[in-house]
Amino acid sequence: MSSLLKEAQPASEAVFAMLEGADSGRLLQDSPWLHYSQLLPLDKCMENSSLVAFKLNDLLLPKRNGFPARALFPGWYGMDSVKWLQRIVVMNAQDQQQSTFYQSGMNRLYNRVTDVRGDTRITRLSSVQVKSVVAWPSDGLKLPAGRHLIWGFAWSGSNAIRAVALSTDGGKAWRPAKLDRQSDPYTWLRWTYTWNAAPGDYILMSRASDATGRQQPTDRERTRKDAYELNSCRPLHCTVR
Question: Measuring CA to CA, how many Å separate 233 from each of 52, 104, 165, 175?
Fold first, then answer.
């Protein structure tokens, strides 16, 4: 994407890029009929990892993936990776307020909303948060006593996963899980844990941490008032008989 933007020679006061897709509609009841668009910091668009993708596995993009071109921002949440990309508009701070991004009401979605003692703060979602999940066993599963291999996945956007821990008692005690390989940025990582299960009722939870020191929270932040970034540890109930 930076190659295209450099060819356009943005003015020195340019700080945003609006990415517009070919698909259109009415986002909210009181919104005009407009193209889907997202507004991103120009600095992010100029990073080497920010792409305009034309091919997938050396073939032209399938229509469902955004043919003929789509934006791709590895490590960021997917709503910014606009499909069916037809236009990139470079803007200064004043212009962005008049953009179709605001006119459509898209600025009201994908926001992190926190409230601390009446002080409400709204910031745009961007980097993927560190997270892990248990893929097996499934919630509510009944298992025989014995040895079982618990497994799942972990990821952390542009950061590598450093460790995954597992709890069988709802987060009171944690034990290290085994990573299947060395973690790389932008990728999911499979982890496993060998569990010698005695009869009883258990609450399984996994918790990941990444190379920057970020750790998956055990509970949802109480100050959060939105429904995004649901990366807290998810409890999973299991019975062993």
Answer: 34, 34, 11, 15
Q: Where are the alpha helices (DSSP H) in the chain?
A: 2-8, 42-45, 100-103
Q: Residue written as tokens 């933007």?
A: 5
pLDDT, tens digit (0-9, with 9 covering 90-100), for 187-229: 999 999 999 999 999 999 999 999 999 999 999 999 999 999 9
Q: Which of 41, 96, 110 is nearest to 73 (CA)?
A: 41
pLDDT tens column, 115-158: 999 999 999 999 999 999 999 999 999 999 999 999 999 999 99
Side-chain-facing half-sphere of 25: CA atoms under 13 Å = 6
pTM of the model: 0.88
Q: What is 131-240's CATH number?
A: 2.60.40.650
With 0-12 / 13-18 / 19 or more C-beta atoms within 10 angstroms meaning exposed / middle / buried, residue 95 is: middle
Q: Domain spanning 2-109: which superfamily?
A: Oxidoreductase, molybdopterin-binding domain (3.90.420.10)
Q: What is the DSSP letter of 137?
A: S
Residues 6 or more apart whose CB falls under 8 angstroms from that of 222 comprise none
In terms of Cβ atoms closer than 10 Å to its own Cβ (0-12, 13-18, 19+), residue 192 is middle
* Domain definitions of the chain by residue range: 2-109, 131-240
Tokens of 60: 């032209």
230/234 Cα distance (integer angstroms): 9
Report the distance separating Cα 43 and Cα 159, nearest Å.
19
32 Cβ partners below 8 Å, 6+ apart? 26, 103, 104
One-letter amino acid for residue 5 of the chain: L
